[in-house]
Amino acid sequence: MGTGIDLLIIEDEVRLVGVLLRGLGEEGFAVRIARTGEAGLAQAAEKDPQVVVLDVGLPGIDGFETCRRLRDAGHWAPILMLSAQATVEDRVHGLESGADDYLTKPFSFAELLARVRALTRRHRRESAEALTTGSLSLDPAQRRAWRGTAELKLSAREFDLLEALMRRPGHAVSRDWLLEQVWDIAYEQRSNVVDVYVRYLRAKIDEPFGTNSLQTVRGVGYRLTAESG
């Protein structure tokens, strides 16, 4: 029974990595591994994870700093922080760094799995909340979108593309990132399907309203802003 959830583990303890990779893989998670904070940040930049398991005691930058940098870079996936330290100060430090939960080593795999599942369930509920960018609004649960009070008539793919853009308002996102979020790995990276659907989307969310919120960022991709006109 697969979850299809992209899970990034940032951990340098070889034995623990093996246990988590095998166990979470068997539970259907798509698991990626990084052994340093720097490598974890690079992987997150390449593909935004849906959940992160992050060790505090990493070589190079530690887990606290890695967590802060993930949040500063706009990655809002739930983060479960792992640490050999059980003090209140460490737990507080982890949560203040941006982590969503904190698990002390040693732990049972069953408890880690339960916590990861709880975080993903909570994140899905939060992700279902309405989104707003300027005069654009979108309700993921009802799959409806509006420009001001005018409801937009979007195809399923156009809706998914708009939702992906509205989850990163003001950020320039690449075509490859949009392919991963909206389509699937069957599409080759050189495909122009993103450009085609951006044109479709502009014709529905901008052109009828005299706005220019879906902008091309030369050499990068696209950006959805609250600015218009």
Notable features of this structure?
about 230 residues; alpha/beta; Rossmann fold; Arc Repressor Mutant, subunit A; 2 domains; five-stranded parallel sheet; four-stranded antiparallel sheet; 12 strands; about 40% helix
Question: How would you concisely characterize the structure shown here?
Answer:
The protein has 229 residues and is α/β, with parallel strands linked by helices.
Tell me what you see in this structure.
By secondary structure, this protein is α/β, with parallel strands linked by helices. It has helices at residues 14-26, 37-46, 63-72, 88-96, 109-127, 156-166, 175-182, 193-205, and strands at 6-10, 30-34, 51-55, 79-83, 101-104, 131-133, 136-139, 144-147, 150-152, 173-174, 214-217, 221-224. The longest helix has 19 residues, at 109-127.
